[in-house]
Input
Amino acid sequence: MLRVENLETAYGASQVLFELDLEVREGEMATLLGRNGMGKTTTVRSILGLTRARAGAITFRGKRIEREAPDRIARAGIALVPEGRQIFPNLSVREHLEAFADNRCGRKDPWTPGRVFELFPNLNKRAENMGNQLSGGEQQMLAIGRALVTNPYLLILDEATEGLAPLVREEIWKCLERLRAAGQTILVIDKYLERLVRLADRHTIIERGRVAWQGNSSELDADRGLWHRYLGV
Output
């Protein structure tokens, strides 16, 4: 579904990504791993067109997108749950979901605000609350729901469990399990490797903007040296 080849991205004279390769296959959950500052969010920004790639190719569903505008990439069916949630403080939970609802991939049973409320019952209870009246966990659930109602082909989550209480974090993991079981294609950036090796299919580790390792969950689980070498666990 998504193929990134020889990607190079820079901020001015400072190059961040160097010949980076990444692949996400349809129906799988893939991860992008690495310590802070290694280029994970820059990779996501390049995929979404928010930071223009200097070189390389990004192909989504058979079409090159590295020169497309961010709004066209989003409409093509990529949705982001961003780091920091970025919830609108002056919109209610219901307004967030209704404003973004769009069956972009033509699902027979699309995600709707009602289905999101079923997935996250706590949001249903807070449906008329404004974004700035929600807890951090509720804001994260809303950010995921807001992405889901666009009915994307590819869902990208950037540090979706960061800073959450353990019980809320567990609810997010269960949500991802349900989405994966339903066939949603997902790319996850997160640091909780114990959960990711159980959930995800394949992993890409980057170090200083370059791919340091790629493999499946059984390979990553078996080589704990990789965890310490590249992920600081």
The mean pLDDT is 94. The chain is about 35% helix and 25% strand.
